[in-house]
Amino acid sequence: MWSLDAVGHGDAALINLEVIGDAYDWVDNGRDLSNFMLHHLPTPAATYPLHLPFLPSDLPLHSSPIPPSTFPPITPHRSRTLVGMGHSLGGTALTFTASLLPTIFHSILLFDPILKPPNDPAAKLTERSLYMASGAMARRSQWGSREEAWTMLKANKGFFGKWDEEVLWKYVDEAMFETDDGQWALKMPPLLEAAAFLDPFRRSSSFLTSRLRNLSLHTRVHIYWAGEVPRIPPHFQPELLALSGQCRVNTDETVAGAGHMVAQDRPSEVGTSVAMKLGELLREAKL
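RE: above sequence
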C-alpha cells in the first residue's frame, strides 16, 4: 500500500515549505499522482526502502486524455492490479489520474470527493470557498505539547471532536511536528491551507468533474458519500454518478453518521466496507 502526501500536506509541507509559494492548484495534485504512477511506483519486491529516491525534474508527462472509444482493457501496471482510493482533495487528484492514465487503475474508490456541481451558482461557490479559507487562517496551528493539541482538538465538538479517538491521536502524530522551541505545530501552515480552499470552488473542481467522462469503460468506480452534510449535495449525487456512467461498474453508498471526514468519523464502518469492496474487486480481477 502506498499513501501519498499532497503538496503542502504532511511531510511534503515540511520538504517543500521554502519553495511552494502561496498559490494552490488542485490539478497539480493529479499531475503529481500521475508522475508517481508512471515513474516512481516500484516494481514488486520483498522489501522496499522507507524513503524512495528523488527523481529527475525533467521527466515528461503527456496530459491529453485518450478518447474513451480507444481505451484498451485495464492491464496490470508493473505486475500489479491497482485500486486507487482518495478522499476529498485526494478524490479529485485520483479522478484526474484515472482519466489521464486509463489503463492503470482497475478500480477507484472516492470518499466524499470535492467535485463541483456544474449548475451551482458561481457566487455561492465563491462564498463557500472564502468561508473555508477564512476559517483556515483563523484556526490555531501551535500547541504547547502533543497532549495539549489532542485535548483541545477533541474539545471541538463540531469537527475534530467527532473523530474516533485513535484516529485523532494519529492526526496529532502525523499531521504535526515538534518545533525547535518544543511547540507542537501543524505541518501545513494555515496560509497554505487557506490557499488550497480558494482554488477548487472556482476552476479545478469543475474541470475535474468534467474528466469523469474520460474514465475508461473498464474502470470500476465506487463512491462513499458522507451521511451528514456531504460536500456533494444529495441532489447532485446521482448526476455525478451518471457522469461516470460509461464505466462498466459504478456504485455508491452513504456512510451514516459521518461528516465530510468519513474515514475519521467512522473508521471501523468504512474500513469494513472497503475491505469487503476490495475483496469483491480483486476476486473479479482474477476471473
